[in-house]
Design a protein that fits this description.
453 residues; alpha/beta; TIM Barrel; two-stranded antiparallel ribbon; binds D-arabinaric acid; binds zinc ion
Length: 453
């Protein structure tokens, strides 16, 4: 099998990671790191090792872009936090407002209304992760999450440059680099990618939903852009043109980490007689293999169940995992990540990664980003695969989302990992601080697919 952690792929992630801090420095400067921990010492050591100061991570899937991308693409601030679709969903589901009326308002008016109904009104305690996240971020940034109005928060954002907001969000979350969601079929995004400046800490997740799921629509654009494609992606000339398009954009985007696509629950990704399967088989997967990029698959969303709710109106369905089993076996030289949206698919995804060395489970997002589910999956993944998965990505859309999501996950990680290390200790395994640091490195190091060679 060819090396999948390719030079291009590795070059994005092989820069001196802050891991140097932990494992390496312990080995050199702290001999104690190698000494055996008692059962009672384990929780404190795991808590320190998983903290935002010590475990600095790359966030593998977000929708973020930095301040250089401008206010339409770089979302931050109190009103954007309140407009996050996890929060809006709650507003609409509770029947507080008719969506059409709400969307006709300015962002500030939407923010005031949302704050009043979901936060200031004592009848609405924010137990849900979306609203709780706003409370956590405000508190972490030194703002009053119990304020009656948004006056103080708005003043803070008016006085603070976006670069400073970004710096604080990343520092509080313990995030070093951020992979975004680059959809070049989106005209507004493409205009920025054609000519905009990139902040070095942002890398690209090359988003391929339009190409794979809506090929006829995508083909019209491809032809407009000078890639001569026909209706049938299995035709060699068409497949070749699509591959050229992917290679060209790989060159234009900043530090592409993978190609990515979400799939509806019953998508026949393996079926070569369907358009999705044909685009994948003849064009996308060969191109990614040539570029040495993994393919990041997100089965499960049902888009626009309630179109009038816009991005708050999507749903989720249990995915048929058979097509994915077929796909990863048919393409043994491609690397895959998988992150099903439906919680009941998490187990199948882990099993899939147990008997295929070219696929790894990653993260939590959207409807399965709930502490109870994340904790349950983390246990299951450790128990089933050892350290062969990437535990978390934030899927943040607004910069401040980084804070609550990573804080929440770190607490879960510390708790579950302590329990697992105590369990190993009880079984007779010697547990050391250096060993814990090494495991965390393995779990979060993005270039592990290089070991597939
Ligand atoms: O979780 C979300 O923010 C969704 O709206 C989706 O966009 C999802 O993150 C995705 O990447 O498809
Ligand atoms: Zn996403």
């Amino acid at each position: 099998m060819q090396a999948l952690g390719t030079s291009a792929y590795k070059s994005n992630f092989d820069a001196p990671l802050l891991w140097a801090y932990s494992y390496g420095s312990y080995l050199q400067s702290e001999p104690l790191a190698m000494s055996t921990l008692s059962r009672d010492q384990i929780p404190a050591v795991v808590a320190a090792e998983t903290s935002a100061q010590q475990l600095i991570v790359d966030d593998w899937h977000t929708h973020l872009l930095g301040p250089q991308a401008g206010p339409q693409l770089c979302l931050y601030g109190i009103d954007q936090q309140l407009a996050y679709h996890y929060v809006r969903r709650k507003l609409f589901a509770a029947g507080h407002i008719d969506p059409a009326t709400f969307y006709a308002w300015s962002l500030e008016r939407q923010g005031d209304f949302t704050w009043q109904k979901l936060f200031a009104d004592p009848a609405s305690d924010p137990f849900d992760e979306g609203c709780r996240g706003v409370v956590v971020a405000l508190e972490a940034l030194g703002l009053d999450p119990n304020a009656a109005t948004l006056h103080q928060a708005r003043q803070f954002y008016a006085d603070t440059p976006p670069q400073e907001i970004q710096r604080r969000c990343m520092e509080l979350a313990g995030v070093r680099r951020i992979v975004g969601t680059q959809d070049v079929f989106n005209d507004q995004e493409r205009a920025y990618y054609e000519s905009g400046e990139w902040d070095e800490c942002y890398l690209s997740g090359f988003r391929l939903d339009e190409l794979v799921l809506h090929y006829p629509r995508a083909a019209v654009k491809l032809n407009t852009w000078g890639y001569e494609v026909g209706n049938d992606p299995s035709q060699p000339a068409t497949a070749q043109a699509i591959r050229r398009f992917l290679a060209d954009w790989y060159g234009k985007l900043h530090g592409v980490a993978y190609g990515a696509c979400s799939f509806p629950p019953h998508c026949p990704v393996h079926d070569l007689s369907g358009l999705e399967g044909a685009v994948l088989h003849h064009a996308v997967l060969p191109a990614l293999r040539e570029l040495n990029l993994p393919f990041f698959m997100m089965p499960g969303p049902i888009r626009q169940l309630k179109p009038e709710w816009r991005d708050a109106g999507d749903g989720v369905g249990l995915a048929d995992m058979y097509p994915y089993q077929h796909l990863v076996r048919r393409h043994p030289d491609n690397a895959f990540f998988i992150t099903p949206l439906h919680n009941a698919n998490q187990y199948d995804a882990s099993v899939l990664s147990c008997h295929n060395d070219n696929i790894m489970v990653i993260g939590h997002w959207w409807f399965n980003y709930h502490p109870g589910l994340v904790e349950q999956d983390l246990r299951m993944r450790l128990e089933m695969t050892g350290d062969r998965f990437i535990p978390f990505n934030s899927d943040a859309r607004v910069l401040e989302n980084l804070i609550p999501k990573w804080q929440r996950f770190r607490a879960i990680l510390a708790n579950v990992l302590s329990e697992k290390y105590q369990d190993l200790h009880d079984a007779g395994r010697q547990v050391t601080r250096a060993g814990i640091a090494q495991t965390l490195q393995t779990l979060f190091t993005p270039n592990r697919f290089s070991q597939l060679s």
